[in-house]
Design goal:
Two copies of one chain form a homodimer. The first copy, chain A, has 105 residues and is α+β, with helices and mostly antiparallel strands. Chain A has a single domain, classed as Arc Repressor Mutant, subunit A (Orthogonal Bundle), CATH 1.10.10. Helix content of chain A is 69%, strand content 13%. Chain A has five helices and three strands. Chain A has a three-stranded antiparallel β-sheet with strand order 1-3-2. In chain A, α3 crosses α4. The interface between A and B is large, with 36 and 36 residues.
Chain lengths: 105, 105
DNA sequence: GATCAGTGCAACCCCAGAGTTGCATGTTGT
DNA sequence: ACAACATGCAACTCTGGGGTTGCACTGATC
């Protein structure tokens, strides 16, 4: 997972409301209307957030009769974590090398 | 690292300019003015971003004479990755349990 | 001590996006 | 067919934040 793919995911994860939506979905799949009953925001606001989350692959729509339930894709979270860890490790190595050179001066 | 601590870090990481700043700092510590020479934004804009990054512990100021160089804290990245992975794993387990029950119906 | 580079602060512009209301469009059940 | 519920779409408000310009301040350097 490249760094460009990562940024929108972080942008999506950088919102409290979306975290509460993800947390609510963590208790089981739910529709936008169902979530609107539990959270202090409108159904339409939730629908927008779900669209954002779906866009970055953190959530997946599942049609159940006339309603659209959403399901958390946990794998995307762990994959994002892997990508972040990789970037961090690279920077750590590079910076360690730089400082080693700097000490040698 | 709790989920509330995590959200501001993601918000900080959810901006392209901040990533380019972090990438530039990955080549070695630098001041806001120095970064302004490499990036297509003003020094003041960079200063704001550095303040945000410092706020969430991704970067650390180091006074060198009359200038203030900033240094990437790679550990914060890996720690954030750990936290994210933990949350993902918890959701995976919980959702797996829920679906197991659902299949039993 | 005069100059110059680096930083800090404040006011301002502008737009993305979080949230709302309102209405139209399905889709299910009776 | 009709009522009820769920979703989708559009327009609107408004705040936050990314970016800018301008100026004041501080610390080196000659």
């Amino acid at each position: 997972m490249t760094s460009e793919t990562l940024v929108p995911v972080f942008a999506a994860l950088g919102d409290e409301t979306r975290w509460s939506i993800l947390a609510a979905l963590g208790e089981g799949d739910a529709s936008a209307s169902a979530l609107a009953g539990r959270l202090p925001v409108t159904r339409q606001a939730i629908a927008k957030h779900l669209a954002v989350l779906q866009e970055v692959g953190l959530v997946e729509p599942v049609r159940v009769g006339r309603e659209v339930r959403f399901r958390v894709i946990g794998a995307q979270l762990t994959e994002t974590a892997r990508g972040l860890e990789t970037v961090g490790a690279q920077w750590d190595r590079r910076l360690a090398a730089i400082r080693e050179i700097a000490e040698g001066l």
